[in-house]
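COMPLEX REQUEST
Ligand: calcium ion
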Amino acid sequence: MDPDAGESTYRSGIHTGTYVALTLNNAGEWTYAAANAPPAAQSLRQSESLIDTITVTDFDGATTAVTITIVGSNDLPVLSEGIAEVREDIGVDDAGSFTASGTLLVNDPDVGESSYQPGF
Ligand SMILES: [Ca+2]
Ligand SMILES: [Ca+2]
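STATUS: Structure written out below.
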């Protein structure tokens, strides 16, 4: 609020934040639209957050900020399956056992969650 007549307005336009842009009109009404798809958003773990602070300016040049907290959700991983075939009398090891091996892949969008828990 500016006591000077006609100066209680914001400078409208698009203001760039770290993750997206904020659109502001002269009345101070703002809209923040973040794309849901980029890794910056999807890599957030459950309840992990990012903060985006965008500075805006009024008619006189005074500044204030809009602070947006982006809160993460747990994304489910995509897991591969293990399939193998063993045959009697073929590939028997020194202990007398059939053996098979392979690699299970895990792809989780959340940072640090693309791994298996040994023993489970
Ligand atoms: Ca996530
Ligand atoms: Ca996850």
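REMARKS: The mean pLDDT is 89. The pocket of calcium ion (ligand 2) is lined by residues 74-75, 77, 108, 110, 113 (CB under 6 Å).
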